Amino acid sequence: MNTPHLATSKNDTCRGSLACVGMGMTLGSHLTPLARSHIEQADVVFAALSNGVVEMWLERMHPDVRSLQPYYKPGKSRMKTYREWVQVMMTEVRAGKRVCGVFYGHPGIFAWSPHKVIEVARAEGFEAHMEPGISAEDCLYADLGIDPGRFGCQHFEASQLLFYERRIDPAGYLVLWQVALTGDWSLGRLETGPAYRQVLVELLNRDYPLDHELIIYRGATLPIEKPCVRRIALRDLPHVPLTAEETVVLPPATPLKPNSVIRDRLNALDKLYGTSTLA
Ligand SMILES: C[S@@+](CC[C@H](N)C(=O)[O-])C[C@H]1O[C@@H](n2cnc3c(N)ncnc32)[C@H](O)[C@@H]1O
Question: What sequence ranges are listed for the domain Tetrapyrrole methylase (predicted)?
Fold first, then answer.
């Protein structure tokens, strides 16, 4: 396949630059031509991908792919790991290399390091760019047949929903990320467990009945896989097995409530200006 070539001058090549690109979710089918071009034109590629097979596929595109996975360690705060990722990428940018960071899904969705390393690179005067990818969110809309524009859609990281006072709107969709890690202050655990998820259930029960059906979703990461969709009652969330690659969706629990005050104001405006002006 022909890939578009990015404009680079000779000066750019020794100046150091950064691109953070998304690999998409499913191996082989989600990588955009622009993301591929960034990978192929880089001097060094760093990879934070969903599994080793995807990393092997990336290695066929570039001779110098460095995995970021070994920076994870049991019990080590993920924030420490993510700061180290920023440092290793910036070391190469400062050395004058064209650096490409490849992240699974979209590099800017529920991902700290790509945003941070771009901010640091730009602050130091380097060219830095984020190239979007197909995220778990995109796959979820397609696989579950959800249009976020129909009733509105809120997204929260599950722990953040517990740690802070947030306002849930049960008339729209609610998408919860990293539910397997619910309530982990340490950022060092790979899962928390039923007691932590029970706290989440009790918080959600303020806005949803315990028998409200929620969806546990895992999109395909390999082309041979199918999306995994499980439907359970809210009360059962603590007791089902849950992996780090799953996202939880709560469909709306209440109908949209008309806002009569605002409708009256808009009707008055229609009368004043004539409805044809709004057409
Ligand atoms: C650190 S975030 C990374 C998201 C990624 N940057 C993206 O664009 O989708 C990890 C969370 O993404 C979601 N996730 C990751 N892989 C998934 C998959 N295959 N299917 C559904 N959700 C997934 C889960 O909620 C998981 O806890």
Answer: 18-226
